[in-house]
Write a structure and sequence with these properties.
Layout (H helix, E strand, L loop, with lengths): L17 E6 L2 E6 H7 L7 H16 L27 H4 L7 E3 L10 E3 L1 H8 L16 E5 L6 E2 L5 E10 L5 E11 L3 E3 L5 E9 L2
Antiparallel strand pairs: 1-2, 3-4, 5-10, 6-9, 7-8, 7-10
Protein name: Tail fiber protein
């Protein structure tokens, strides 16, 4: 005995359900999933079509949109996501000439900064002795030469390493061997000697 469709038990539709379908006089069962695959864009309601047009336009414009750091969450930017050697020098920074990236002595922890030569020497002074330089203070280097017969005294202030030798004014022949001394600033290093020119270098070490 036939059963009326409204007499069937209610159910929740899913893609596995089948429906009767007829073509050319033959009745077959057709799954709902198969029906969905037959829907064409022209079968959609106008509001759905408008939404698809907007979505399509948005997707096509993505390659032309610039991605800035403001659009990326801070939590998504991690060094783990960078490939090894992935940041090349041109991408690292636009640096001023005669600078090095680092942290200045006494600056504490923080972001890198452009360090000049003076900043580097400040760091190195904690490891190496005072270095030769033109500025006053420890590390200053002074070259000197006396007139014939005159002596030489170290520059005032500080402590100096002095290296010198003497030669005859008349023949330019060496008159004495090379000497070295550590003296206080202003001290007499070499007394004068008739006809001899003394010349050397003084390096302030303190």
């Amino acid at each position: 005995m036939p059963i009326r469709i409204d007499a069937l038990a209610a159910g929740i539709a899913n893609r596995a359900h089948v429906l009767p379908a007829m073509k050319d006089g033959a009745t077959v069962k057709l799954a709902i999933s198969a029906l969905l695959g037959l829907i064409e864009r022209g079968d959609l309601p106008p509001d759905v079509e408008s939404a698809l047009v907007l979505a399509e336009s948005a997707l096509q414009s993505i390659p032309n949109l610039g991605v800035t750091t403001a659009k990326i969450a801070d939590s998504n930017v991690t060094t783990a996501k960078l490939a090894d050697d992935g940041v090349t020098n041109p991408k690292l920074a636009n640096m001023a000439q005669a600078t090095v990236k680092g942290r200045a002595s006494g600056a504490g922890t923080g972001d890198p900064a452009d360090l000049a030569a003076a900043d580097l020497f400040t760091i190195l002074n904690g490891v190496f002795p005072a270095r030769p330089q033109a500025a006053a203070g420890a590390g200053q280097v002074v070259t000197w030469a006396t007139s014939a017969g005159n002596g030489y005294s170290a520059p005032s202030s500080g402590t100096w390493v002095v290296i010198w030798a003497g030669y005859l004014q008349s023949t330019a022949a060496w008159a004495a061997g090379i000497s070295i001394a550590v003296v206080a600033g202003g001290s007499l290093v070499q007394p004068g000697s008739s006809g001899i020119i003394f010349t050397g270098v003084a390096w302030r070490i303190a």
